[in-house]
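anyone else get weird line breaks when pasting these?? whatever heres mine. first is seq + tokens for prot A
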Amino acid sequence: MSRYGPRIAALERRAERDRASFDVDIDDEQAAERYLSDGAGQAIWLYVEARTGGRLVPFSEAEFEALEDAMNTWLELYARSYGVDLEAEFTLREAAELLVETRNVHDTAQLLTGVPDRRR
């Protein structure tokens, strides 16, 4: 287990709680914001933190999968908050590269998911 193990486990548990409590009948942009700032953004940033600064922190396979699954869960909930059903299968690396490039979790989520549609 890496030194990030406890943080990854906490993110994983929170993502599962958010999935279990999600209400499909509510179109809620405030919830979408929460899924990004308190969820997906935290997962992506943890990955960036572990991969930058001159030291590569190795994750176990289970840690990596848990972190990526949590991020994808939150991105799915984000999209569903806008009424879009999405099966997220994004990699942490692609999300991290977008976050570093855009410096904005909202832009990162929009570029990954296409939600909300920029043509609105």
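and prot B, same format (seq, then tokens)
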Amino acid sequence: MIKKNYHTHCSYCGHAKGDVEDYVKEAIDKGFEVLGMSDHIPYPENDWGDRMDYYFKDEYLEKVRECREKYKDRIDVKMAFEAEYVPKYRDYYKELKEKEQLDYLILGQHFFFMDDGSLVNCFATVTDTEQYIRYAEACVEGMNTGIYAYLAHPDLIFRNRLAPDKNTEKAIDILLDAAVKNDYILEINANGFRRGIREFPEGKRYPYPVDTFWDRVKGTNLRAIIGSDCHDPSFLADECVEIAERFALEKGLRLIDTI
């Protein structure tokens, strides 16, 4: 069983249960060596939903620091955020990392912008596979900054019920070409397994991780890391994390547990 998790949320984001200390205690109880708290980053001027209010940023960081000190003899608590790459906030990401001395940022592209400026939410407003390509390009822009430690749920966009086509393949090509170029770590996200098997045009499968994506990863020798992406302390080391580990082993992926 994996004893390190870098992808952890808490109640500050508004759609998770438990405070920072609840997750730290659960990690200690499960024998974890490292717990990275990485709640959804707040933006100073925008609220794109399902994330921490900017008002709570300092409070969240202070809670993580308190737990890191309080439990330092029992577990290594990391302080981080999961963040999209939005070009106008590039300086904000860098300044936040430096000023607050964050241990890392995770690149998690939950939304992106089309060329006309319209916002596309990966969970709600994907209507065409051409948007898959723009999603991939947005992820690549984030990868190329060097700001982030790894790419969370790189196949998140394929959770939408659109039949796979040439745009699907092109999006995967774009993602993997950039990942190889940057020697980028890709995350196998256990939260996709928690969503259960669903019906898609190509048959029944989990929303993500997606076989067609990870079968391609296997041939690249890219590193993969499992992220619980837990939004409840009880999910930190649940059976879906075990499923993710089996998935990685069955695919023959180059699995790592440390960033």
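btw re prot B: The helical segments are 20-29, 57-70, 90-100, 130-145, 166-182, 190-194, 211-218, 239-251. Residues 166-182 form the longest helix (17 residues).
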